[in-house]
Write a structure and sequence with these properties.
Layout lengths: L4 E3 L2 E4 L2 E3 L2 E5 L9 H11 L3 E5 L2 H4 L14 H10 L3 E5 L30 H18 L10 E5 L11 H13 L6 E5 L4 H4 L5 E6 L3 H11 L6 E6 L15 H13 L3 E8 L10 E3 L3 E3 L18 H10 L20 E10 L11 E3 L14 E7 L4 E11 L1 E6 L2 E7 L6 E6 L5 E7 L15 E8 L2 E2 L3 E6 L10 E2 L7 E9 L5 E4 L5 E6 L2 E7 L6 E4 L7 E9 L7 E5 L10
Parallel strand pairs: 4-5, 4-11, 5-6, 6-7, 7-8, 8-9, 9-10, 10-11
Antiparallel strand pairs: 1-2, 2-3, 12-13, 14-25, 14-26, 14-32, 15-24, 16-21, 16-24, 17-20, 17-22, 18-19, 18-21, 22-23, 26-31, 27-30, 27-32, 28-29, 28-31
Helix pairs in contact: 4-5, 8-9
């Protein structure tokens, strides 16, 4: 069976030279009915390989559970890649970064006090062992040594930016081999981190988006012989809420790709197709200030969020054709789009009034974290009573990540981790007034030591300096909205679900815009499109054609604050920032 060989002068497969020309495509960011389309467009670009991460947190949502179904059917994705004649670079983690919630590490690890992630902590390595024991045996037939498309497997991910424990990397390599990986392993790091992130006997690769000559020179300095490869050639970037939409010109990115290929290097283009952080799956960064990532992972990639070729796709295809065969077929055409229409949301349901439908309240003398509640995504509703009437100052040690505060059902303010806010002043109307704090997990940090990112209210919660006790903590994962009872729309105080219907003759891709709405989440036919926020830059949510059906469709919007309208808009083009409006 063919095995990728790492020779002094490059890669060889089945005793023939191979230059890897790959593109990033994360199956978990794409609706599974669209996988085949995206992989076909990878082949038409001239790629011979695709790369994907594997999100441990989705495949193992709880300890002892493992999923390989639906949108997580990785074997099916690999079958489709093989059908297109594409090799696969598999990046199973355990940590993936990827601007993904928690860097792909499952939140239930953080239920362990003091656990050290990405380390030789036996609790962490034991969980990794269990994960790989579930993931890898079903993938054994997909290794190239068994006739499948996977030619190499990544060992961890940019570890040099986090630590320098070669023993930890050696432990991971042993686990991968123990569970059946017999194709080459590789590490990837930014050029300045190559020495810390590597392991003897494992191929080093580098990640960069510019300064190609310098990046390859540093890789060659650290690895005097063997293939040169850029495992993440960054051709765009991700966006965060409240910032600007980031783009990179096709000409600039294509020129750097030309430099890479002219140097004889292999490449993985990050991203071929970025896709979407559906639901609650976006990550965040925290380098002193918490910054959550937006729902769209368009990344200014070669294929846009709907999978349509961009000018960058055509520019890259022309460069690749100078160095490798490109199929003699026309450029893929954009997919059909929905006809723009307005949708009236004419029913509503209060979140606070129906919170009991989503989770059982747990009573304790202090607020419990999401992880202590066995919860990964969504919100927690904390409730207690205030000891006295009159002026009050609520102080919370740590808000993770955004807390809306209500007294007797009335909103009195918001505390945001992003703004380093810990205290809120209000007036309690009476002794024993009801205090409710709705906390949103806006995405666990996916990079750096801040990945130890527990959610909810952390530490002490006081009013006028006195600790509050007798709390209930209610998990609100919002993984199903089926039990909600809607009534005809009427003014609602506080967070509320808004429901409406619309019809389509033939399902097609579209974009949902919410002008006049403030912040929240959207579902279409029960499928979670993701978060919206009026602060931008993203102003639409991608609606994949497969989530729609001919005829009647339902849309549900959870608005956390207030809306100036009861209407949302289906559009035929995205709004990712000012350049797209």
């Amino acid at each position: 069976m063919p095995r990728l060989e790492i020779a002094a002068d490059g890669f060889r497969l089945d005793d023939r030279p191979l230059r890897i020309i790959s593109g990033g495509l994360h199956y978990f960011r794409v609706h599974p009915e669209q996988w085949a389309d995206r992989l076909h467009k990878a082949r038409l670009l001239g790629l011979n390989t695709v790369e994907t991460y594997v999100p441990w947190n989705l495949h193992a949502p709880r300890p002892g559970e493992f999923r390989l179904d639906g949108g997580l059917d990785l074997p099916r994705f690999l079958d489709l890649a093989a059908a297109e004649g594409l090799h696969v670079l598999l990046r199973p983690g355990p940590y993936i970064c990827a601007e993904w919630e928690g860097g792909g590490l499952p939140s239930w690890l953080l239920a362990e006090d003091g656990i050290e992630l990405r380390s030789r902590d036996p609790r962490f390595l034991g969980a990794v062992d269990d994960y790989l024991a579930d993931l890898l045996p079903p993938l054994k037939p997909y290794l190239s040594t068994s006739g499948g498309p996977i030619i190499a497997v990544q060992l961890e991910n940019e570890y040099g930016a986090y630590g320098d424990d070669a023993g930890y990397l050696a432990d991971l390599a042993e686990l991968l081999h123990t569970h059946g990986v017999d194709v080459p392993l590789f590490t990837c790091d930014q050029p300045s981190d190559l020495a810390r992130g590597g392991l003897d006997g494992v191929l080093h690769t580098a990640n960069f988006g510019s300064r190609v000559d310098a990046g390859l020179a540093e890789l060659r300095r650290q690895q005097p012989t063997g293939p040169l490869m850029c495992s993440e050639f960054w051709i765009g970037w991700f966006d965060r809420w409240g910032a600007v939409h980031i783009t990179r010109s096709p000409a600039d990115a294509a020129a750097d790709l030309d430099r890479l290929l002219a140097a004889g290097a292999s490449v993985n283009i990050y991203m071929l197709h970025g896709g979407t952080n559906f639901g609650f799956t976006n990550g965040a960064n925290d380098k002193g200030t918490y910054r959550p990532t937006v729902t769209s992972y368009d990344y200014d990639a070669l294929l846009d969020e709907a999978g349509d070729p961009t000018p960058k796709y055509e520019a890259f295809r022309e460069v690749i054709a100078k160095y490798a065969p490109v199929p003699d077929e026309p450029l893929p055409a954009p997919a059909a789009k929905l006809v723009p229409t307005d949708i009236e949301l004419d029913s509503c349901a209060s979140l606070l009034d129906q919170a009991h439908l989503f989770g059982r309240a747990v009573i304790a003398d202090r607020p419990l974290t999401m992880e202590q509640l066995g919860q990964s995504f969504g919100f927690v509703l904390y409730e207690t009573v205030l000891p006295a009437a009159g002026p009050a100052v609520l102080r919370i040690d740590e808000v993770r990540d955004r807390a809306q505060v209500f007294v007797d059902g009335q909103p009195v303010g918001v505390l945001e981790r992003e703004n380093h806010e810990h205290a809120l002043a209000f007036t309690a109307p009476r002794h024993g007034a009801h205090l409710a704090v709705l906390v949103e997990n806006q995405g666990r940090v996916n990079y750096g030591t801040a990945i130890h990112d527990r959610k909810g209210l952390l530490g002490r919660v006081t009013v006028n300096g006195e600790a509050l006790a007798d709390w209930t903590s209610r998990p609100l994962p919002l993984d199903s909205l089926d039990a909600l009872a809607f009534t005809p729309a009427a003014p609602v105080v506080g967070p509320a679900f808004h429901l409406g219907t619309f019809t389509v003759d033939r399902p097609a891709d579209g974009y949902l815009a919410l002008p006049g709405w403030t912040k929240g989440l959207v579902w279409v036919n029960g499928f979670p499109l993701g978060r919206y926020w009026s602060r931008g830059p993203q102003t639409t949510l991608y609606v994949p054609a497969p989530v729609l059906r001919p005829g009647r469709n339902e849309i549900t919007v959870l608005e956390l604050h207030a809306s100036a309208t009861s209407t949302v808009e289906l559009r035929d083009r995205p709004g990712l920032g000012p350049r797209d409006e």
